[in-house]
Structures are given as structure tokens and as C-alpha cells.
């Protein structure tokens, strides 16, 4: 297993367009988390999945954001009608369930909305 | 979410030990103390975690106070590659999410 991978690494889009990001977690991990990070700040939690079930969504996740994890494998994060404020690094992490387990992060997708 | 407090920045010299402090006075009995670090333009990287006892791994050591209200990440010999933002995080609750603060920016001088 090569770790958590995210695609694409960089995305430039025009305001108002829809974008979709993909995350492939470590295969045996049942937990998958999405975070957003802006310059100079720590990552902010967006949502997480236990297998295919989305169990929590942050208030940061507006109606324009949707995430899925079909069959409990890879996950996608879609942003509809992008705004300039959506420009950020989007990070995916996976882990086994439990507070005493390590979480592994992908390299992130950097989104720039112009 | 349980909060942690870390210094904004610290500086060290190469090949010297570094002690990064973290206060977490509101820690609950089931919270694990995790440390992650993040290099520029990369995702966070796991460093170490513990519950009550001190922990060692190939990257670092974690010293946990007896009352668990504070901890210290110890890098035994800092290298230039250790320059990063270090995050101290409490992981617990039902969702086990990692709640990041601003972390400590570690600068390593050659």
C-alpha cells in the first residue's frame, strides 16, 4: 500500500464551476476524514466517514459541498458553484477506528478559484 | 473538542535536542495525545501518540505528565529536515477526529 493518495494535486477553476476531488485511503482503513487548510492555519475538519456512512459534517460544509464514499473505499468531495473563498488545500486522511490509532494524510489537493 | 496550547514558534540548532511543549488541561480520561507535523506544501505526518505512559519511536519521544495535563515532544537530535509546524492534538470522543490548532513552527538553524 502506498499510503493515502489524492487526485488532482492542483486544480485551478473559474468561479461558478463545479470541481470534484478524489481520495484513495489505505485499503484496510474504515475511517476517512476530509479537512480544509488555508494559508497560515491548521487543517479544519469538514466531514468523516465510517465505511460508506457519512457520520458527521462540520458547519464549514455548506450546501455547495458534498462528499461520498461509495462501498467504503475511495471518497470524493464535490464543490458546486465554486467561490473565491473556497480556495484552499483540501486534505484527506484515513485511519482505523479508535483514538489510539494513527491517521495518515494525503498530500492534498490545492484548489485555486479565479 | 478538547483544546491544546502550544507556543507559536521555537528555534533550535542542528544536532541539538528539541523539547516542544503542549498544555491540555481539559483532557479527558479517554483522550489520546497525538503529535503530527507538517512540512510546507505537504499533508500532516504522524509523529507519535500516547495515553498515559511515555512513548518512544524512531522519530521522537513523548513525555506525558503524571496528571496528563501537559506533554512534551522530544526530538533527540534535530536535523534541518525536522523544520516544520508541529501539532499537538487530543484524539478521543466518538468520532476520533483530529482537531488542529495553529501548532508550533520549529526552525532549525544549521
Determine the N-to-C terminus distance of chain A: 36 Å
Main pleated-sheet profile of chain A = 7 strands, mixed
Number of strands of chain B: 9
Radius of gyration of chain A: 13 Å
Q: Name the helix and strand elements of chain B from N-terminus to C-terminus, one letter apiece.
A: EEEEEEEEE
Instruction: Give the oligomer, counting copies of the same chain as homo and different chains as hetero.
Output: heterodimer
What value does the Rg of chain B take, in angstroms?
13 Å
Percentage of residues in strands of chain B: over 45%
Count of extended strands of chain A:
11
Interface with most residues: A-B, 28 and 26 residues
Query: On the 0-100 scale, what is the average pLDDT of chain A?
Result: 95
List low-confidence stretches of chain A: none
Please report the number of helical segments of chain B: 0
Coarse shape of chain A: globular
Summing up helix and strand content along with how strands pair, one would put the structural category of chain B as mainly beta
Compressed to H and E, one letter per element, the order of chain A equals: EEEEEEEEEEE
Amino acid at each position: 500500500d502506498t499510503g493515502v493518495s489524492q487526485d488532482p494535486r492542483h486544480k485551478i477553476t473559474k468561479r461558478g464551476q463545479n470541481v470534484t476531488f478524489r481520495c484513495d485511503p489505505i485499503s484496510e482503513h474504515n475511517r476517512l476524514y476530509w479537512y480544509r487548510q488555508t494559508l497560515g492555519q491548521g487543517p479544519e475538519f469538514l466531514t468523516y466517514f465510517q465505511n460508506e456512512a457519512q457520520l458527521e459534517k462540520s458547519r464549514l460544509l455548506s450546501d455547495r459541498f458534498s462528499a461520498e464514499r461509495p462501498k467504503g473505499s475511495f471518497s470524493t468531495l464535490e464543490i458546486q458553484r465554486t467561490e473565491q473563498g473556497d480556495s484552499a488545500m483540501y486534505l484527506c486522511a484515513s485511519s482505523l477506528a479508535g483514538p489510539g490509532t494513527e491517521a495518515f494524510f494525503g498530500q492534498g489537493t490545492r484548489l485555486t478559484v479565479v | 473538542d478538547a483544546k491544546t496550547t502550544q507556543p507559536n514558534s521555537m528555534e533550535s540548532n542542528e544536532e541539538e535536542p528539541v523539547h516542544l511543549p503542549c498544555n491540555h488541561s481539559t483532557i479527558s480520561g479517554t483522550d489520546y495525545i497525538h503529535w503530527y507535523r507538517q512540512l510546507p506544501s505537504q499533508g500532516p505526518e504522524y509523529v507519535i501518540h500516547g495515553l498515559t505512559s511515555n512513548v518512544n519511536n524512531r522519530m521522537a519521544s513523548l513525555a506525558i505528565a503524571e496528571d496528563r495535563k501537559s506533554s512534551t515532544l522530544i526530538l533527540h537530535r534535530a536535523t534541518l529536515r525536522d523544520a516544520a509546524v508541529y501539532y499537538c492534538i487530543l484524539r478521543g470522543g466518538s468520532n476520533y477526529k483530529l482537531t488542529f490548532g495553529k501548532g508550533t513552527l520549529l526552525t532549525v538553524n544549521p
